[in-house]
Amino acid sequence: MRAFETLARGLGRATGEVVFVGDHPSHDIAGARAAGMRAGLVERYAAPTVDLRAALENAV
Predict the structure, then answer these.
(1) Within a 10 A sphere around the Cβ of 49, how many other Cβ atoms?
(2) Three-state DSSP class for 32?
(3) What residue spans of 1-60 are helical by DSSP H?
(4) Contact status, residue 43 vs residue 21, Cβ threshold 8 Å
(5) How far apart are CA 8 and CA 13, in angstroms?
(6) What gap in Å lies between CA 38 and CA 32, rounded to an integer?
(7) Do the beta carbons of residue 39 and residue 20 sit within 8 Å?
(8) Is 42 helix (H, G, I), strand (E, B) or coil?
(9) CA–CA dist 38, 18 (Å, integer)
(10) What is the distance between the alpha carbons of residues 41 and 20, in angstroms, rounded to a whole number?
(11) What are phi and psi for residue 41, nearest 5 degrees?
């Protein structure tokens, strides 16, 4: 969790203002959410998302 907090601080943002996108459900997504970030999962073998804005807005 500290890594995500450090990342947000380096960006000059609170963790609640950051959307983290990662490809590992437990390391990336769970860690980011535990730190208070919204998180989106990139599925390597899924069809590409055409509307990136919509995907980021739907990140939880």
Answers:
(1) 13
(2) helix
(3) 2-10, 30-34, 52-57
(4) no
(5) 5
(6) 7
(7) yes
(8) coil
(9) 7
(10) 9
(11) -95, 130
Q: Whole-angstrom Cα distance, residue 15 to residue 39?
A: 11
- For 57, the token pair is 């807005």
Residue 40: CB partners within 8 Å, gap ≥ 6? 19, 20, 21, 22, 29, 55, 56, 58, 59
CA 14 to chain CA mean position, Å: 13
Question: Could you tell me what percent of the chain has a pLDDT over 70?
Answer: 95
Spell out where the chain has E strands. Answer: 19-22, 38-41
Task: Give residue 8's pLDDT band: very low, low, confident or very high (50, 70, 90).
Answer: very high
Main-chain dihedrals φ then ψ at residue 20, nearest 5 degrees: -105, 130
Q: Mean pLDDT across the stretch 11-25?
A: 94
User: Given pLDDT bands bounded at 50, 70 and 90, which one contains residue 49?
Assistant: low
* Other CB atoms within 10 A of residue 52 CB: 11
